[in-house]
Amino acid sequence: MMRLPRFHYYRPRDIREAALVLAGEENAMVIAGGTDLLPNMKRRQQTPRTLVALRHLDELKRVTNGSGLVIGAGVTLTDLVQDRGIKSAYRGLWQAAAQVATPHLRNMGTLGGNICLDTRCNYYDQNHEWRKAIDFCMKKDGAICWVSTGSKTCLATSSTDTAPALVSLGAEVELETAHGQRTIPLHELYRDDGIHYLTRSNEEILTRIILPDGAGTRSVYWKLRRRGSFDFPVLSVAAAIRFGAGGAVDEARIVLGAVASQPVLCDSASEFLNDRSLTDEVIEEAAALCARAAKPVKNTDFSPHWRKRAVARLAAYALQELRGDDMRATREKIARQAL
Amino acid sequence: MNKVTTLKRSQQQNAHIGCQVNREPVQVSVAPGKTLLEMLREDLQLTGTKHGCELGECGACAVLVDGEPILSCLYLALEAEGCSIDTVEGMALDGRLHPLQEAFADLGGAQCGYCTPAILLTCKALLDKQPDPDRDQIREALSGNLCRCTGYQQIFESVEEAILRLDHSEQGTDLKSVPGSGG
Amino acid sequence: MSKENSYSVIGKPRRRVDGADKVTGQTCFADDIMLPRMLHCKLLRSHVPHALIRSIDTRKAERHPGVKLVLTGRDFPNEYGILPVSQDEQPLCREKVRFVGDPVAAVIARDEFVAEEALELIRVEYEPLDTISDPVEALKQEPARLHDYSEEGNIHKRLSYEFGDVEESLANSAHVFEDIFFFEGNTHLPLEQHAAVGVPEAEGRVTLWSSTQCPHYVHRAVAKALDLPMAHVRVIATPNGGGFGGKTDPFNHEIVVARAALMLGRPIKICLNREEVFYCHRGRHPVLMKFRTGVDVNGALTAMHLQTLLDGGAYGSYGVASAFYTAVLQPVTYHLPRYAFDACRVFTNKPPCGPKRGHGTVQPRFGQEVQLDKIADRLKIDPAELRLNMVEKPGALTANYLKIGSIGLAECINRVTERSGWKDKYRKLPSGRGVGLACSSYLTGAGNSIYWNAMPHSGVQLKLDRSGRVTVFCGATEIGQGSDDVLVATVAEILGIDPLDIRCVTGDTDLTPVDLGSYSSRVTLMMGNAAIQAAERARDLIAQAAAQKFGADAEVIEFAGGRVFNTGRPEQEMPFQEAVVCAEEIYGSLGTTGSYTPAPPPGKYKGGGVGPSPAYSYTAAVVEVEIDTASGWITVPRVYIAHDLGRTMNPVLARGQVEGSVYMGLGEALMEESAFRRLPARLSGALVHREPSMLEYKSPTSTDMPEVITDLIEYPDDNGPFGAKEAGQGPLLPVIPALANAVYDAVGVRIDEVPITAEKILQALDSKARGGSGRVGPAKFPELEWPEPYRVPPPWEGGDGNAVNKPQRKRAAKMHDMDRFRKVTAS
User: Fold this and answer.
1) C51 has which bridge partners?
2) Given C22, C659, C702, which is nearest B139 (Cβ)?
3) Contact flag A133-C113 (C-beta cutoff 8 Å)
């Protein structure tokens, strides 16, 4: 049986105490759902000396309405999927959350955890013994990136489903330390570096996700993976559009997942859509622009070549769904579930 | 910070936790690195809970924590403090099998039987919440449980048969009487 | 055909005898065994793919707190292996490691955590050797040799056979088709990870509990590897949490815990983690195949020349048998007048391949059925008609001397084509949607044991007493397929009693008569026949006693409904229990035995022992697909399958076997792959399994499984118990080629390799759009030097089952000589 390494376990009374322990301890990490961290610890990819538990903190589990929506980072993905308000107002986020891993893992995993999901790579997400056989890689215990041996940075892939959806919706996140807090746009939380993929410091705890008012914005999320469950995305397209009075696009934001070490904003495609109506031609053009922004590398399931080819198709599906096309049959084939 | 360090030191040793397992109160002494899976199998000898990967990739170790199916291989035993845990050993009541168990045994829902305990519990949680799910909902609820033997079809049929038996049986297990089963 | 069923237990849907245990968590799998004073074992595995072991320093590990024992290869005297001709495995490697995952040391400690810590403290000094990652590299002369006993370089074994003058027939055929296919390797992935517990017994004896499909073969291997008399070793097979062929070899970890238990005098448990299960492997061989097939104007086969090249991995395992199986069953499905085959298995530095569901026959079945689809397409014949025209005849003796019994294939084809609406769909669906058909046949038990002997393949013992309880003993192993249920049902049927009044004891080499194990789909037929014999002998004794009581002839005594009665005078009757009392009074303690030995095969030529079976099952499948032409994304909405299983023992279980086979076949067809990775040679000599995890080795989930429409077709076979044939492997075979053929029907491209993925479909569509072949698959079969074939004229050309020539074969080094040589050098 795979077993966890030894560690200290700390159960704080509140976020402030959690932040204090994080700041005071060398090599401390927070644990919420544990679905990302614990496998990594069993494979000795991450070996924190201290775990600071957040699961029991009720203040992280609240969903509150304001001008938009504030979701506690500790809300489980299942709770999120069962929230009718989210399903209707932030459909892209709902579709993303509903496709994370499996029902069991969604019962455990939190929104905050999915946002901070460790980047993934076929050379890294392996047992210690396996990694020893390739003399490790730069993300953990080694010196080289085996995906591209000339690369100076780690190319591990951002594999979070909810982040592209949240970025497309213009979400912000709140980070808290023992001394204060800051709120940043979610896309600024990420960096295109497989090792230092978050701009969050070790002492910061992601506490809340803030969504702008969803009224008038339609959003969708399309995920590509080998199987209908379990698998991380090999490509995903999140798109949010606010339509103007005449049905033309007022504002669009398209974000790709799993094609870099961070969610990729397709600015050129988003800008192209402004003031245009979603005709077949416009969709095709925008989808092609999305494909140009994707630079998948060979470290996930499926070949990078095929994943890149699939971008335009998946982006087109996303835009067609936003236009109001009935995409249920196509969804059924790709997602293998009703969304 | 002194206080923090003191507290922490006490928790690197084994900690005593109290929880309910199959409706009975249980006290266990566990190390922080122990998962609920290890606690159930190795400390409580509840070996009905299986394991196929210990990394959250197969679903064989699913149990119910406060009525929700979770993977015991990725759940720290310490965090089960105060929780109500249901394993396959607790599904039969007063010597009577749960209708799901009956149907799985009768209709080929269990072949080798290794993924079966987790699947039964997952289905129980589904039916506790939603007494009459359709085939797609059953399929979706079981999408986190790999089975290599059946091809799933006889599993779906077993669940559907259990739903009928739950509907029609006066003597069948009254799920609402089971603490922590939701309903 | 025979649909009448006068049986009271056989053929009736029934809760399996072990059903209640399985749904309550009571079934005790190997890792569920917890014994007082039990210690735990972990293995240190090689992280280099091919190297000589210069030294192993275990001193630090031995001193680690909680460690009780550290073992290395020096602690084990002998080699072992499943086949007598391939005794090439060591419990822990002594001189050499041959793949990443080969074990070199074992730590026994108070718990797994401590054992794992201690593994880190063992220092192994390796001297790297050249590595071989695939057959092309293996066929080169230069690379380092994995085994000294291989035929030549890294060629493990070559086979060559000719049944009639194939070249002449091909020259005279209306059409000759030449096609090359590749089938990627894949693995069993049972949910249960292998586990074993060694328990010391008094006076130097040992008991081994293990999740094995073949306790008898493990029994032999443990005794041999540890130089123990077989009488001092007891092997108990725990119910397997899935096997599929992955637990049919004796394994190093089993021998290690048996040895450690003897040394420490305490129970020792090992449970492999998932990565280690991938290293045990013994999965489907990657096979490259070349078919040259002649047909007449109607598309009927005239001759076939098949060549196969198997990537065997690092050890022999069942490999020689696997190589035969990539060829010997081709003539069983359709009438094939002349046939020749060459097969070659090579060694590579990867986990050893072996038998997976459909052992060796799945790959060439894929090739042949896709080629038939191409033939039908070219000749503009409906693929169903093409096949119906040449279904082999019942009772036939094939070109390679396999004796067939019943054949329900034509009905299977008719059933799936009717059910699927084939005539309205084939070549008639809109682009992107398609249907494909394929057929197959499979063994119902290998006609020969793994080691040559004249003893029974299955033995059953019955114990009856005044309680009315019958206990049935058999060495067969419950791996989920329902063998315990077949055993009980068979005895219940003969004795006319309730299955609940029968207890079965299985898979225990001390208590149960030998049964060779749960492999090659042999259990229902062989154990079933042995059980019928034992039960009939018991029935005869009881009938004699009852007859005496009634003052009647034994011939008029019948057994039904838990009662024994005189058919002539119904008022003369008594409960079964009372009849047993009568018998016990007359004969003393009651016990009977039964056994089954297959008839000797008609093929007398050397090598003719692989392929014969008491009966062959038949299957036809239609697979529907939908393909998105812009991405190649493939969806399978439905599979129709009809399987001729002779006689259904329990329809619930039989359907489960068929649908489980469809599931596994679809997984192989669409996504499962045991692929390996090399790193840039200038930077690293690594050669690793690409994805040894449940997440990245893609096994279909509940959301990926299509609807399956199953028909059980019954053409009873004279050799089967109640006419039964196998159901657990054969139905896997047609699913894969039927899917490939459906892809062609849908979008007009040929994917001549497995798995069939969106990437390959898109690549083929691109090629077609550019005016290319619209095919993805291997381009050529390497030039290989084949030995002179054994020439065996087919029965209809005056053959008598003997070869007419005596080809010279290079003699492989004898394994027992090598053992002796090693012992001398080691001392």
Assistant:
1) C97, C128
2) C702
3) no
- Measured CA to CA, the distance from residue B66 to residue B63 in angstroms comes to 10
> What is the set of domains in chain A, with CATH numbers?
58-116+157-335 (3.30.465.10)
Q: What distance in Å separates the CA atoms of residue C315 and residue C322, rounded to the nearest whole number?
A: 13
What domains are there in chain C, each with its CATH number? 37-129+194-271 (3.90.1170.50), 157-187+283-448+605-776 (3.30.365.10), 455-596 (3.30.365.10)
pLDDT confidence bin for B183, thresholds 50/70/90? very low
User: Does B56 sit within 8 Å of A21, measured CB to CB?
Assistant: no
Which value does ipTM take for this structure? 0.97
pLDDT of residue C809: 75
**Which pLDDT score is estimated for C70?**
98
Q: Which residues contact B106 (CB under 8 A, 6 or more apart)?
A: B158, B161, C15, C19, C652
**pLDDT tens for residues C426-443?**
999 999 999 999 999 999
Q: For residue C715, give both structure tokens.
A: 């053409």
- Chain A residues in contact with B1 by the CB 8 A cut-off are 20, 24
- Chain B positions touching A21 (Cβ under 8 A) are 4, 8
Give the other-Cβ count within 10 Å of C707's Cβ: 13
Question: Rounded CA gap, A288 and A309, in Å?
Answer: 10
Residues of A near C (Cβ–Cβ under 8 Å) read 1-3, 122, 125-127, 129-130, 132-135, 144, 146, 149, 226-231, 301-303, 305-306, 309-310, 313, 330, 333-334, 336-337
Burial class (CB within 10 angstroms; exposed 0-12, middle 13-18, buried 19+) of A3: middle
Q: What is the mean pLDDT of chain A?
A: 97
Q: Does domain B99-171 have CATH number 3.40.250.10?
A: no
Work out the percent of chain C whose per-residue pLDDT is above 70: 97
From residue B58, alpha-carbon distances to A105, B13, B115, C83, C664 in Å are 11, 31, 9, 33, 16
Chain A residues near residue B141 by CB distance under 8 angstroms? 103
The token pair at C662 is: 């469809």
Residue in the structure block whose two tokens are 């599929």: C244
- Along chain A (339 residues), what's the average pLDDT of each consecutive run of 10 residues? 95 96 94 98 97 96 93 98 96 98 98 98 98 98 97 98 98 96 98 98 96 95 98 98 94 98 98 97 98 96 97 97 97 93
> Could you say which residues from 130 to 169 on chain B have a Cβ atom under 8 Å away from some Cβ of chain C?
139-140, 142-156
pLDDT for position C810: 63
Supply the pLDDT for residue C812.
52
* Shortest Cα distance, chain B CAs vs residue A205, angstroms: 18
- List the domain boundaries for chain B: 14-90, 99-171
Burial class (CB in 10 A: 0-12, 13-18, 19+), A101: buried
Task: Note whether A1 contacts C112, CB cutoff 8 Å.
Answer: yes
Mutate one of A227, A280, A314 to test the C interface: name it (highest C CB count within 10 A). A227
CB contact under 8 Å between C695 and B57, yes or no, is yes
Q: What is the pLDDT of residues A234-268, one digit of tens each?
A: 999 999 999 998 899 999 999 999 999 999 999 99
CB < 8 Å to A24, chain B: 1, 4-5
CATH code given to domain B14-90: 3.10.20.30
Chain B residues within an 8 Å CB radius of A38: 35, 56, 73-74, 76
> Which residues in chain B have Cβ-Cβ distances shorter than 8 Å to C26?
48
Q: Which stretches of chain C drop beneath a pLDDT of 50?
A: 1-3, 814-827
